[in-house]
Amino acid sequence: MNKKFISLLLSVFIATIMLAACGASGSSDKAIVLRLADNHPEDYPTVIGDKKFAELVEEKTEGRYKIDVYAGGQLGSEKSIVELLQLGAIDLTRVNTMPLTEFSKDVGVLSLPYLFEDEDSKWEHLNGELGRELLDTFEGTNLIGLAFYDSGERSIYNSKKPIETPADLKGLKIRVQPSELAIDVFKSFGASATPMAYSEVYSAIQTGVIDGGENNWPSYYTSNHYEVAGYFTENNYSGPPEILLGSQKLWDRLSEEDREIFREAALESVAVQREAWAELTEKSREAVIERGNEVIEIKDFTPWREAVEPVYEKYGGPYKKWIDKIQSSK
Ligand code: GTR
């Protein structure tokens, strides 16, 4: 048995014990209780979305299904959660599309830098045919794509100095999400890209193991990274959305009608999530500025866009089908 497999088995074992301890299964009524994992805190917009989804499923199935939401990364880091989902040890999760690039080859296209013209055009695509087709690309991976949630745009922050252009990033160690694409993007910016789990970033910046990270406003704020990395360069370099996923094992148990209910509930929860998202984005930005952090607004995006050309040289081929669809509608 290789090490990865043993550690995965161990995670399944630990998750099972934890879930039993939490009393998730075996509730006294006849409802089938499912578990949904999210690595954000209770009142974070994705968790608000998860809970709306749970409420709608319960309502539409007249209480036959109940979904317990485990927020705050209680069940593990994002990548291990996806592996547990594939094994059917967890039923549902909300994760970001960036770490999923290794699980569904196609969905990675959404993590390419400067892919969409703006947020409106991104959402037109996500709510349209492209979004539907991408959700279907999980087929064969033991994962079921249910809906996209808003995650805005990601920018770069650090503890050392104001960054205006990619050249300023030279020599800085920037944490990225665990994904080859994320590493390639930051290499192209000229930084030293350091993949790491989200929960480890705060102390890694604090102790100087890394110089900074990259994220959207709500994550920068709620993770408290703003306390240890005061310079935020708003270069909005990419906008991988969040995604609500189910396990194949759950799907196999559901009737055709119930699958429809789960899909519908997921799509209906998006509006609530997006409203909470817009609110927290504004609030986070204001709070961080009020605290005295320095926000570097980028006027000329040319050097940033030019820097990522090697990323398009490498990934442009594999993602051509999707990029063409997006560009043909510009
Ligand atoms: C957040 C995202 C999380 C996680 C995190 C990270 O924006 O919502 O799911 O991917 O970023 O940087 O690891």
UniProtKB/TrEMBL annotation:
Keyword Signal annotated: yes
GO MF term set: carbohydrate binding
One term under GO cellular component: outer membrane-bounded periplasmic space
InterPro entries the UniProt entry points to: DctP_fam, TRAP_DctP, TRAP_DctP_sf
Keywords: Receptor, Signal
GO biological process: transmembrane transport
Keyword Signal carried by entry: yes
PROSITE patterns for this protein: PROKAR_LIPOPROTEIN
Family annotation (Gene3D superfamilies): Bacterial extracellular solute-binding protein, family 7
Signal peptide limits: 1-20
NCBIfam families: dctP (TIGR00787), TRAP_S1 (NF037995)
Listed name of the protein: Extracytoplasmic solute receptor protein yiaO
